[in-house]
Model the fold of this input.
Amino acid sequence: MVRSLLTLGDLTREELFKIFQKALELKAGIKGRKAIGVLKNKIVGILFEKPSTRTRVSFESASLRLGGHAIYLSSNDLQLRRGEPVKDTARVLGGYLDVLVARVYDHGTVEELAQYSGITVINALSDLAHPTQAICDLFTILEVKGTLDGLTLAYIGDGNNVCQSLLECCAMAGVHMVAACPEGYHPKPDILNNVFNIAEKTGSRISIVHDPKEAAKGADILYADVWVSMGEEGEKEEKMKALKGYQINADLLKVAAKGALVMHCLPAYRGQEITDAVIEGPQSIVWRQAENKTHGAAAILAFFLE
Done:
Protein backbone atom coordinates (compact mmCIF):
# COMPACT_ATOMS: atom_id res chain seq x y z
CA MET A 1 0.00 0.00 0.00
CA VAL A 2 1.32 3.45 -0.93
CA ARG A 3 2.04 5.61 2.11
CA SER A 4 1.70 9.37 2.40
CA LEU A 5 2.75 12.02 4.93
CA LEU A 6 -0.32 14.10 5.71
CA THR A 7 0.30 14.51 9.44
CA LEU A 8 2.99 13.24 11.84
CA GLY A 9 0.55 10.46 12.71
CA ASP A 10 1.54 8.79 9.44
CA LEU A 11 4.95 7.98 10.95
CA THR A 12 6.03 5.89 13.91
CA ARG A 13 8.50 7.24 16.45
CA GLU A 14 11.16 4.92 15.02
CA GLU A 15 10.52 6.17 11.48
CA LEU A 16 10.75 9.78 12.64
CA PHE A 17 14.24 9.16 14.01
CA LYS A 18 15.19 7.29 10.82
CA ILE A 19 14.32 10.45 8.89
CA PHE A 20 16.47 12.54 11.26
CA GLN A 21 19.40 10.18 10.66
CA LYS A 22 18.76 10.20 6.92
CA ALA A 23 18.79 14.02 6.96
CA LEU A 24 22.19 14.03 8.69
CA GLU A 25 23.62 11.63 6.11
CA LEU A 26 22.17 13.41 3.09
CA LYS A 27 23.24 16.83 4.37
CA ALA A 28 26.82 15.59 4.65
CA GLY A 29 26.64 14.30 1.08
CA ILE A 30 25.04 17.45 -0.30
CA LYS A 31 27.53 19.71 1.52
CA GLY A 32 30.36 17.56 0.21
CA ARG A 33 29.04 18.00 -3.34
CA LYS A 34 28.81 14.23 -3.67
CA ALA A 35 26.49 12.83 -6.31
CA ILE A 36 23.44 11.25 -4.66
CA GLY A 37 21.20 9.21 -6.93
CA VAL A 38 18.46 8.33 -4.46
CA LEU A 39 15.79 9.85 -6.71
CA LYS A 40 17.32 8.96 -10.06
CA ASN A 41 14.56 8.74 -12.71
CA LYS A 42 11.96 9.92 -10.16
CA ILE A 43 9.63 12.82 -10.89
CA VAL A 44 8.46 15.00 -8.01
CA GLY A 45 5.37 17.13 -8.56
CA ILE A 46 5.07 20.25 -6.42
CA LEU A 47 1.46 21.47 -6.38
CA PHE A 48 1.03 24.73 -4.46
CA GLU A 49 -2.18 26.68 -3.88
CA LYS A 50 -0.26 29.16 -1.68
CA PRO A 51 2.89 31.17 -2.40
CA SER A 52 6.06 29.86 -0.79
CA THR A 53 9.75 30.62 -0.57
CA ARG A 54 11.33 28.02 1.73
CA THR A 55 9.01 25.04 1.32
CA ARG A 56 8.86 25.27 -2.46
CA VAL A 57 12.56 25.88 -3.07
CA SER A 58 13.64 23.32 -0.46
CA PHE A 59 11.64 20.52 -2.08
CA GLU A 60 12.67 21.53 -5.59
CA SER A 61 16.35 21.73 -4.66
CA ALA A 62 16.17 18.51 -2.62
CA SER A 63 14.68 16.69 -5.62
CA LEU A 64 17.45 17.92 -7.89
CA ARG A 65 20.21 17.27 -5.33
CA LEU A 66 19.08 13.65 -5.09
CA GLY A 67 19.10 13.15 -8.86
CA GLY A 68 15.37 13.53 -9.44
CA HIS A 69 13.28 15.95 -11.49
CA ALA A 70 10.92 18.53 -9.98
CA ILE A 71 7.87 19.96 -11.74
CA TYR A 72 6.26 23.00 -10.12
CA LEU A 73 2.47 23.04 -10.51
CA SER A 74 0.73 26.27 -9.56
CA SER A 75 -2.95 25.64 -8.94
CA ASN A 76 -3.61 28.77 -11.02
CA ASP A 77 -2.16 27.00 -14.05
CA LEU A 78 -4.14 23.79 -13.62
CA GLN A 79 -7.73 22.88 -14.43
CA LEU A 80 -8.37 22.98 -10.67
CA ARG A 81 -8.76 26.71 -11.16
CA ARG A 82 -11.70 26.06 -13.53
CA GLY A 83 -13.39 23.72 -11.09
CA GLU A 84 -12.02 20.29 -12.01
CA PRO A 85 -12.62 17.98 -9.04
CA VAL A 86 -9.54 17.32 -6.90
CA LYS A 87 -10.02 13.57 -7.33
CA ASP A 88 -9.84 13.90 -11.13
CA THR A 89 -6.64 15.95 -10.95
CA ALA A 90 -5.25 13.45 -8.46
CA ARG A 91 -5.87 10.46 -10.73
CA VAL A 92 -4.20 12.19 -13.67
CA LEU A 93 -1.16 13.38 -11.72
CA GLY A 94 -0.78 9.92 -10.23
CA GLY A 95 -0.12 8.63 -13.74
CA TYR A 96 2.57 11.23 -14.41
CA LEU A 97 4.49 11.51 -11.13
CA ASP A 98 6.25 9.38 -8.53
CA VAL A 99 5.41 11.64 -5.58
CA LEU A 100 3.32 14.76 -5.08
CA VAL A 101 4.24 17.52 -2.63
CA ALA A 102 1.14 19.64 -1.96
CA ARG A 103 0.68 22.97 -0.17
CA VAL A 104 -3.04 23.70 0.18
CA TYR A 105 -5.60 25.75 2.05
CA ASP A 106 -7.91 22.91 3.12
CA HIS A 107 -6.48 19.74 4.69
CA GLY A 108 -9.25 17.81 2.94
CA THR A 109 -7.48 18.53 -0.36
CA VAL A 110 -4.31 16.61 0.58
CA GLU A 111 -6.47 13.78 1.92
CA GLU A 112 -8.30 13.59 -1.41
CA LEU A 113 -5.05 13.79 -3.39
CA ALA A 114 -3.67 10.88 -1.37
CA GLN A 115 -6.86 8.86 -1.70
CA TYR A 116 -7.15 9.07 -5.49
CA SER A 117 -3.63 9.61 -6.87
CA GLY A 118 -2.18 6.19 -6.05
CA ILE A 119 1.20 7.80 -5.24
CA THR A 120 2.84 9.21 -2.13
CA VAL A 121 1.48 12.64 -1.19
CA ILE A 122 3.49 14.86 1.16
CA ASN A 123 1.65 17.61 2.98
CA ALA A 124 3.79 20.73 2.60
CA LEU A 125 1.25 22.75 4.63
CA SER A 126 -2.50 22.70 5.11
CA ASP A 127 -4.79 24.53 7.48
CA LEU A 128 -4.47 21.61 9.91
CA ALA A 129 -0.82 20.62 9.81
CA HIS A 130 2.69 21.37 8.60
CA PRO A 131 4.49 18.07 9.25
CA THR A 132 7.54 18.71 7.08
CA GLN A 133 8.26 21.94 8.97
CA ALA A 134 8.14 20.18 12.33
CA ILE A 135 10.41 17.37 11.11
CA CYS A 136 12.99 19.86 9.80
CA ASP A 137 12.78 21.90 13.02
CA LEU A 138 13.45 18.97 15.33
CA PHE A 139 16.21 17.78 13.03
CA THR A 140 17.82 21.22 13.41
CA ILE A 141 17.57 21.05 17.21
CA LEU A 142 19.07 17.55 17.20
CA GLU A 143 21.91 18.71 14.96
CA VAL A 144 22.72 21.74 17.14
CA LYS A 145 22.25 20.14 20.55
CA GLY A 146 23.40 16.63 19.70
CA THR A 147 20.36 15.17 21.47
CA LEU A 148 16.66 15.77 22.01
CA ASP A 149 16.58 14.15 25.44
CA GLY A 150 15.37 16.39 28.24
CA LEU A 151 14.89 19.49 26.07
CA THR A 152 11.96 21.88 26.40
CA LEU A 153 10.59 23.89 23.48
CA ALA A 154 8.41 26.94 24.18
CA TYR A 155 6.15 28.02 21.34
CA ILE A 156 4.83 31.56 21.57
CA GLY A 157 1.79 32.57 19.51
CA ASP A 158 -1.23 31.23 17.66
CA GLY A 159 -1.98 27.52 18.12
CA ASN A 160 -2.04 27.09 14.35
CA ASN A 161 -0.97 24.37 11.91
CA VAL A 162 2.73 24.85 12.72
CA CYS A 163 2.07 24.69 16.45
CA GLN A 164 -0.08 21.58 16.08
CA SER A 165 2.57 19.71 14.09
CA LEU A 166 5.29 20.79 16.52
CA LEU A 167 3.21 19.47 19.41
CA GLU A 168 2.77 16.15 17.64
CA CYS A 169 6.42 15.90 16.63
CA CYS A 170 7.73 16.85 20.08
CA ALA A 171 5.43 14.33 21.74
CA MET A 172 6.64 11.59 19.39
CA ALA A 173 10.31 12.50 19.89
CA GLY A 174 10.03 12.80 23.67
CA VAL A 175 10.71 16.56 23.69
CA HIS A 176 8.85 18.60 26.30
CA MET A 177 6.78 21.44 24.83
CA VAL A 178 4.85 24.36 26.27
CA ALA A 179 2.69 26.45 23.95
CA ALA A 180 1.67 29.94 25.07
CA CYS A 181 -1.47 30.86 23.14
CA PRO A 182 -4.10 33.56 23.72
CA GLU A 183 -7.63 32.55 24.70
CA GLY A 184 -9.50 31.50 21.59
CA TYR A 185 -6.32 30.56 19.71
CA HIS A 186 -5.49 27.21 21.28
CA PRO A 187 -4.65 24.12 19.21
CA LYS A 188 -7.66 22.00 18.25
CA PRO A 189 -8.98 19.79 21.10
CA ASP A 190 -8.79 16.56 19.06
CA ILE A 191 -5.18 17.33 18.14
CA LEU A 192 -4.34 17.96 21.79
CA ASN A 193 -6.01 14.76 22.95
CA ASN A 194 -3.94 12.79 20.45
CA VAL A 195 -0.76 14.59 21.48
CA PHE A 196 -1.39 13.90 25.18
CA ASN A 197 -1.89 10.21 24.40
CA ILE A 198 1.41 10.07 22.49
CA ALA A 199 3.25 12.00 25.21
CA GLU A 200 2.06 9.58 27.87
CA LYS A 201 3.89 6.79 26.04
CA THR A 202 7.12 8.70 25.28
CA GLY A 203 7.49 10.63 28.54
CA SER A 204 7.11 14.00 26.86
CA ARG A 205 5.48 16.76 28.95
CA ILE A 206 3.00 18.86 26.97
CA SER A 207 1.10 21.89 28.25
CA ILE A 208 -0.85 24.88 26.95
CA VAL A 209 -0.65 28.16 28.86
CA HIS A 210 -1.62 31.78 28.27
CA ASP A 211 1.42 33.60 29.67
CA PRO A 212 4.47 33.72 27.34
CA LYS A 213 6.83 34.15 30.31
CA GLU A 214 5.40 31.06 31.97
CA ALA A 215 6.05 29.08 28.79
CA ALA A 216 9.56 30.50 28.31
CA LYS A 217 10.73 29.92 31.90
CA GLY A 218 13.70 27.56 31.73
CA ALA A 219 13.00 26.61 28.09
CA ASP A 220 15.86 25.44 25.89
CA ILE A 221 14.24 26.65 22.66
CA LEU A 222 11.95 29.62 22.01
CA TYR A 223 9.89 29.33 18.84
CA ALA A 224 7.80 31.96 17.01
CA ASP A 225 5.51 32.04 13.99
CA VAL A 226 3.71 34.87 12.22
CA TRP A 227 0.62 36.29 13.90
CA VAL A 228 -1.42 36.38 10.69
CA SER A 229 -0.99 33.49 8.25
CA MET A 230 -1.89 33.41 4.56
CA GLY A 231 -5.63 33.22 4.11
CA GLU A 232 -6.32 34.98 7.44
CA GLU A 233 -6.10 38.54 6.15
CA GLY A 234 -9.76 39.12 7.04
CA GLU A 235 -8.94 38.35 10.69
CA LYS A 236 -5.82 40.54 10.81
CA GLU A 237 -7.10 43.25 13.14
CA GLU A 238 -8.60 40.75 15.58
CA LYS A 239 -5.52 38.53 15.61
CA MET A 240 -3.08 41.40 15.99
CA LYS A 241 -4.99 42.52 19.05
CA ALA A 242 -5.20 39.04 20.58
CA LEU A 243 -1.51 38.25 19.98
CA LYS A 244 -0.08 41.56 21.18
CA GLY A 245 2.50 40.66 23.79
CA TYR A 246 3.18 37.20 22.33
CA GLN A 247 6.59 38.27 21.16
CA ILE A 248 10.04 36.76 21.52
CA ASN A 249 12.24 39.60 22.74
CA ALA A 250 15.17 40.27 25.07
CA ASP A 251 12.92 40.17 28.15
CA LEU A 252 11.57 36.74 27.23
CA LEU A 253 15.07 35.42 26.58
CA LYS A 254 16.04 36.40 30.13
CA VAL A 255 13.59 33.91 31.65
CA ALA A 256 14.56 31.07 29.30
CA ALA A 257 17.45 28.71 29.97
CA LYS A 258 20.92 30.16 29.60
CA GLY A 259 21.92 30.06 25.95
CA ALA A 260 18.41 29.15 24.81
CA LEU A 261 18.04 28.78 21.06
CA VAL A 262 15.66 30.96 19.07
CA MET A 263 13.70 29.56 16.11
CA HIS A 264 11.20 30.96 13.62
CA CYS A 265 9.67 29.14 10.64
CA LEU A 266 9.64 32.39 8.59
CA PRO A 267 8.67 34.74 7.10
CA ALA A 268 9.34 36.92 10.14
CA TYR A 269 7.66 40.24 10.83
CA ARG A 270 10.12 42.05 13.04
CA GLY A 271 8.48 44.07 15.76
CA GLN A 272 5.47 41.74 15.89
CA GLU A 273 6.12 38.11 16.88
CA ILE A 274 9.89 38.64 17.24
CA THR A 275 12.28 41.56 17.53
CA ASP A 276 15.04 42.30 15.05
CA ALA A 277 17.66 42.15 17.80
CA VAL A 278 16.66 38.62 18.79
CA ILE A 279 16.32 37.10 15.31
CA GLU A 280 19.69 38.59 14.34
CA GLY A 281 21.26 37.80 17.71
CA PRO A 282 23.76 35.11 18.72
CA GLN A 283 21.10 32.76 20.08
CA SER A 284 19.16 32.65 16.81
CA ILE A 285 19.46 29.51 14.68
CA VAL A 286 16.75 30.69 12.29
CA TRP A 287 18.92 30.68 9.17
CA ARG A 288 20.28 27.21 9.91
CA GLN A 289 16.69 26.12 10.51
CA ALA A 290 15.72 27.53 7.10
CA GLU A 291 18.63 25.86 5.30
CA ASN A 292 17.77 22.53 6.92
CA LYS A 293 14.40 22.54 5.18
CA THR A 294 16.27 21.31 2.10
CA HIS A 295 17.99 18.51 3.99
CA GLY A 296 14.81 17.56 5.82
CA ALA A 297 12.91 17.57 2.52
CA ALA A 298 15.60 15.36 0.98
CA ALA A 299 15.31 12.90 3.87
CA ILE A 300 11.51 12.79 3.64
CA LEU A 301 11.59 12.21 -0.13
CA ALA A 302 14.25 9.53 0.25
CA PHE A 303 12.36 7.80 3.06
CA PHE A 304 9.18 7.48 1.02
CA LEU A 305 10.75 6.76 -2.39
CA GLU A 306 13.82 4.61 -1.68
Q: What stands out?
A: Residues 131-290 form a domain with the Rossmann fold fold (CATH 3.40.50.1370).
